[in-house]
Amino acid sequence: MKISLKAFPKIYFVFLVLSIFFILSGCGGFGGSEKKIDYYTLEYSAPLPAGSNNLPFVINIGRFKSPLYNSDKIVYRINDFQTNEYVYHRWEKDPARLVSYFLFRDLKNSGLFKGVFTFDAGFAATHSVSGTVDGFFEDDRGKTWEAVLSLDIVLMAENEPDLSRKIIFQRKYATRKVCAKKNPKALAEAMSKAMHELSGQIINDIYKSLSEKVQ
Question: What span, in angstroms and rounded, lies between the C-alpha atoms of 175 and 128?
Fold first, then answer.
């Protein structure tokens, strides 16, 4: 079959359009080869109870804040006064939500209190726990990478008009855990160990402080 010279420009145009389409598809222009994002969370067994007696208090876990880590992006440090973020590796939720959820889970599973609820559950509580996530990052400045976790926790008595008695304690909790490898998954494992440690300390301090109220 002969192709006329008049038809050639149209064939050339169609070929050019198809070539551009396949080039863009291969480069991710249509999302075909765009790199996926990996999400990470904390995984650990709840700490063992700090005591044996169930206390007659209902605890409300308030909304936590994290001014420096207010997104799901994983933050790491390679130099002083400088932070960076992974592009294709993120937390499942932002650090404040992760910490508040796991502290709620651990307090509830401890069985040490009459009830433990989140702030949006709508239940009246005798005491509330709130906090700030001051540190939640991967420290790459040493020979080994470390997960850094730092929390500021406040335990308050609800319906207490006397401000001097309303705040039962405000304490700082901090720890570092070595990452087994230099990758985000190892960070998640190390951060899980850090949260396990601090959660146990916080629960123990809450139990000790409130047990004094029933003596």
Answer: 24
